[in-house]
Amino acid sequence: MKQLLEIVRSPADHWVGDGFPVRTLFSYQSLGERISPFLLLDYAGPAEFPASDRPHGVGEHPHRGFETVTIVYQGEVEHRDSAGNEGRIGPGDVQWMTAASGILHEEMHSADFARRGGTVEMVQLWVNLPARLKMSPPRYQTILENQIPEVALEEKSGSVRVIAGRFRDAQGPAQIFTPVNLWELRLKAGRRTELRLPEGYTTTLLVLRGEVALNAGETAGQAELALFDREGKAVAVEARQDATVLLLNGEPIDEPLVGYGPFVMNTQEEIRRAHADYRSGRMGRLGSPGAGSH
């Protein structure tokens, strides 16, 4: 069994742009190598937005050296980037963007959602890339809810949505560079399940709804995150209430880590080069909506 090391209680929120009030459950600045290959986890909302004729969100900004994964629970987000990709994701959908060598993008509430207003609830995860892949071409994946396999757990204790990696015989649809399992657990109150996980992998659990007991010990509630030791091959989760839990499990990247703002690389010189490339336009330009890049 993987030992529970720490529960990160729900921190205060802050705004990302004007569309996402987020709680940062972890970052590489706060937990360092303990969370590798993961870099950051933001939980946005749940937050109510009134109807508006102007979509809220995060305007044009760059990334280099990692991947961003956005999972929507409530609301809708529209994405545009400098590689010409555009997409919209809603409840149950996932956006997996590989920034790699560099990309500019924006993430806004969809125009339809803005007009009617409603609740926004989302998770964004940053996944690191190893040095040999940090300057790969950017890539974008829209993963719709109906493309994500769902596996029933024993004794009607719930189900697992497999976004990335493998759970039993189900393979997640995300095309990944770094060995990662990203599973969404929907657990029924009073039921216990034991998850088999690779030895040596980083493992964290984010509780989105409800309350769970971990390894028959401490409990974690909404917007709280549990961090486990890499040793061991299983984690036991018992739902005290109906619960939705996001499991992150990945192979650590044992390389130097240097980050500044939207860039995460291996050396300070690479960070300086990223800033220079961004300022000079070598990461591309963001075109007008519907026009792609130019």
Structure overview:
The chain has 294 residues and is mainly β. It contains three helices and 26 strands. It has helices at 28-31, 111-116, 268-280, and strands spanning 4-8, 14-16, 20-27, 38-49, 57-63, 66-74, 77-81, 86-89, 94-98, 103-109, 118-128, 139-143, 150-152, 158-164, 166-167, 170-171, 180-187, 192-196, 202-209, 212-214, 219-220, 224-228, 234-239, 243-250, 258-260, 263-265. The strands form six sheets. Strands 1-22-19-24-17-14-13 form a seven-stranded antiparallel β-sheet, with no helix packed on it. It has a seven-stranded antiparallel β-sheet with strand order 2-3-4-11-6-9-12. The chain has a four-stranded antiparallel β-sheet with strand order 5-10-7-8. The radius of gyration is 19 Å and the shape is globular. The termini are far apart. The mean pLDDT is 95.
Number of helices: 3
Shape, principal axes of CA atoms: globular
Q: Please indicate the percent range of residues in DSSP E strands (runs of 2 or more).
A: over 45%
SSE order: EEEHEEEEEEEHEEEEEEEEEEEEEEEEH
Helix content: under 10%
- Estimated radius of gyration: 19 Å
Spatial strand order of the main sheet = 1-22-19-24-17-14-13
Which stretches of 5+ consecutive residues score pLDDT under 50? Answer: none
Structural class category: mainly beta
The number of distinct β-strands equals: 26
